[in-house]
Design goal:
Radius of gyration of chain A: 23 Å
Oligomer: homodimer
Strand content of chain A: 15-25%
Shape of chain A: globular
Largest interface: A-B, 97 and 97 residues
Helix content of chain A: 25-40%
Strand order of the largest sheet of chain A: 15-12-14-13-17-18-16
Number of strands of chain A: 18
Largest sheet of chain A: 7 strands, antiparallel
Structural class of chain A: alpha+beta
Chain lengths: 461, 461
């Protein structure tokens, strides 16, 4: 059928209020933060309800019309970009907090609610929603679910899938799977929730979710630690998890190369006077401010005495803690000093991370002796971020750098995507992490649930 | 093809060491703890390796021969029973601990390792494996994965799916999906691990797993609390989670009817002198024995002063704590005094649990005035266990009692299986918890991954 026929059918079914044509897009943002080229969707559907989504998908299914679902468009792998011929489905109008249930410690939301709105509503209700990432103001719960978002506090609270008790989703044919349960335990048949979470819009459109709220931590302790070698880093991780009683809420490692480049290029204050091979931003949360601070300080003292930590600065105020975090959050400022850098999000067994970092650095610098290699990450999750800049390359070496990093990832049985997803950007490397049998199984599931391949085609596989 | 042809092919492929015929079964246990009638398998395959499992399934797939996978046979819903015509595949010989990786805090195991062996190996290595249930000595990691086992410490550590970083499994056609990763973060394509976990042997045979180990808690505080009403119970839950700093490792509620029946029928000591409407066994773990005990006692004092708790006994020794747990674990002794009871494992929104319990009790006693109704559960997970005995019924009323309990479960949007699975026993009630669209999606996935329906047919759906 011709394109105009599908659009006509969508307009007839949903009305002009819900269906916009490209002439009406104006300056609307249509692509994510990946920097990848994306196409302009042939129409934009903005449903107000799950039933609207179901009606839209029934029409698209009937016409075998591809659909790309969009949330806050803050993804980094092109997962929400149109590739050509898709209609876009934006959940921006489904942005209501439906309920906060204080007894069950749950919040029921529509998929279009921005993450920060959920975080704030949780605090207002006396709770805490732990998922946190830089894009919090723009990214939406639906996007967080579609990509199984991670972030800094996974070590304590887990990823997005661990923050969700139930989801409602619309399948490719418009059928609504309503699993809006509030229970932690629910072993009744296959866990479709976990299959849909992280499937990047290729299996269903997630429309609503029951989020799990946590007790609000009332004590936070933060330290900037300097360490002599990588063994000391893993030792600090193990000791902090054993001795800080499940309080460890961030364990952010920075290699010297990262720290030096950040301090050299951004107007930041060094937390310590001297220079060391490794730095760790350690954060622990608890419920009793006095006891917590005391235990944290005692722990740091033990680590200094044992030589695990060479030196440390303890945050005496929120401003101190914020200053430490600013160094860790510097990647947001990279565009200012290395606009053409390549950035990676990979994960490994914690016991391999030190070697992996050394291999990557060595291979890159063998090939490009003046390569700037900045390595940092969430060590408790085995998650490394690697940023590479080859001066003068002007971005022409992205593919070659990809191959170096992803080959090391394959050698160490790592994941080519720790938290960003596969999207378009990492499609060629999915087989570095998943076996043929796994990818075949994924494709069988995709075909079973979306036989006409209308949901976000061209992504993941 | 005739049955003997398949068996011949299995014998030819695997040899007599791996394939036993019924004449050789002797007194071997063939059925689970559900009490449901099961058939005798036509053969028993006992592989020594993943490759053996793959070879066995390739033959079964070629002959469209149904297979039932068996672990420790401690399930409660008939999920591992043969129904007629299956060969059984027991992973009892794949019982090796392959590796303990102290830096990554992981343990790699074969699926046939008993849970208790894993728990003990974790302690020996200075770690803790938190999954725990009564069948620990017999149940296996493979069975725990196939059923997504729960237990008492889910409130702090999650269910079995939260204890696993990677799994290896063999699909119906003998293909091996090897996802033995050690990372917490791995967003590369669909999460097959979470789909296979809890699928009760119907989608694949799980052969190996990478388990996540936790720091060993070095402080445990336990109290037996008496409460005046259900609101106080939910208040104690919320306050303990907010104030005991993620330490709450068990929150076991017992209704008075449970407590009275247990104390009347078993030789146990009452922890408190008086009688109350609700009891809670509260346990909290930490890493600093002195501080932890002090904080726990202060918290209990606050709760007593606020009237949330009417009275409480604090365990002064491990023996005291054990005595409290013996009251909670009394269901293991039910066969002695109510051999024909019906037992339920359901879950609800925490805010509904009080009403659900009242409804169940009322409806049962309206219909059978002398019904004994014993209610207890893991409140933090919304998980209720309900035990019903109708004196003189000799077990003839199971189906009618099922209908009462599961109708209430449907009315309150609960789950007909919190932690036991569906198996055969709850098949008729799956639709009480899952929508038609969800069940259709599950069937599509089943058909996609196991087109000849050889893996545990007749279970779940």
């Amino acid at each position: 059928m011709s394109k105009s026929t599908v659009i006509d059918a969508l307009l007839a079914e949903l009305g002009a209020d819900l269906v916009q044509l490209p002439a009406e897009f104006g300056s609307r943002k249509l692509h994510d933060w990946s920097g990848l080229h994306g196409a302009v969707p042939t129409a934009l559907i903005r449903p107000r309800s799950t039933e609207d989504v179901a009606r839209a998908l029934r029409v698209c299914h009937a016409f075998s019309q591809p659909v790309v679902t969009q949330g806050g468009l803050t993804g980094l792998v092109g997962g929400a970009n149109a590739l050509g011929g898709e209609v876009a489905l934006s959940l921006e109008r489904m942005n209501r907090i439906v309920e906060v249930d204080r007894t069950s410690a749950t919040m029921t939301v529509e998929a279009g609610v921005p993450l920060q709105v959920v975080q704030e509503a949780a605090l207002d209700a006396g709770f805490y929603f732990p998922l946190d990432l830089g894009a919090r103001g723009s990214c939406t719960i639906g996007g967080n679910l579609a990509t199984n978002a991670g972030g800094n506090r996974v070590i304590k609270y887990g990823m997005m899938r661990d923050q969700v008790l139930g989801i409602e989703a619309v399948l490719a044919n418009g059928e609504v799977t309503s699993g809006m349960h509030k229970m932690i335990k629910n072993n009744s048949g296959y866990d479709l929730r976990h299959l849909l979470i992280g499937s990047e819009g290729t299996l269903a459109v997630i429309t609503r979710a029951v989020l799990r709220l946590r007790p609000r931590p009332t004590a936070v302790a933060t330290a900037w630690c300097a360490l002599p070698d990588y063994d000391a880093v893993t030792k600090l991780l193990a000791c902090s998890q054993a001795q800080l009683s499940a309080g460890v809420s961030a364990f952010e490692v920075m290699w010297a190369g990262y720290y030096d480049a950040v301090l050299a290029n951004l107007p930041l204050r060094a937390p310590l006077d001297k220079h060391y091979p490794y730095y760790v931003l350690l954060e622990s949360v608890g419920s009793d401010p006095d006891r917590h601070a005391e235990a944290f300080e005692a722990f740091l003292g033990d680590m200094l005495e044992a030589g695990v930590v060479s030196d440390a600065a303890l945050a005496q105020s929120e401003a101190d803690a914020q200053a430490f975090w600013t160094i860790r959050d510097a990647p947001g400022e990279y565009p200012k000093f290395i606009p053409h850098h390549s950035a990676y999000d990979v994960s490994f067994s914690i016991s391999d991370v030190g070697q992996v970092a050394a291999h990557c650095e060595q291979r890159l610098q063998e090939r490009w002796p003046d390569a700037l290699v900045m390595i940092y990450g969430h060590l408790g999750d085995g998650n490394l971020h690697i940023v590479v800049d080859i001066p003068g390359s002007e971005g022409r070496l992205h593919d070659e750098i990809d191959r170096v990093i992803y080959d090391v990832t394959r050698e160490f049985h790592g994941s080519v995507s720790a938290e960003h997803g596969i999207g378009v950007k990492k499609k060629a490397y999915l087989g570095h992490t998943r076996s043929d049998a796994e990818i075949t199984a994924m494709r069988l599931i995709k075909t079973a649930l979306d036989p006409r391949s209308i949901l976000n085609p061209g992504k993941i596989f």
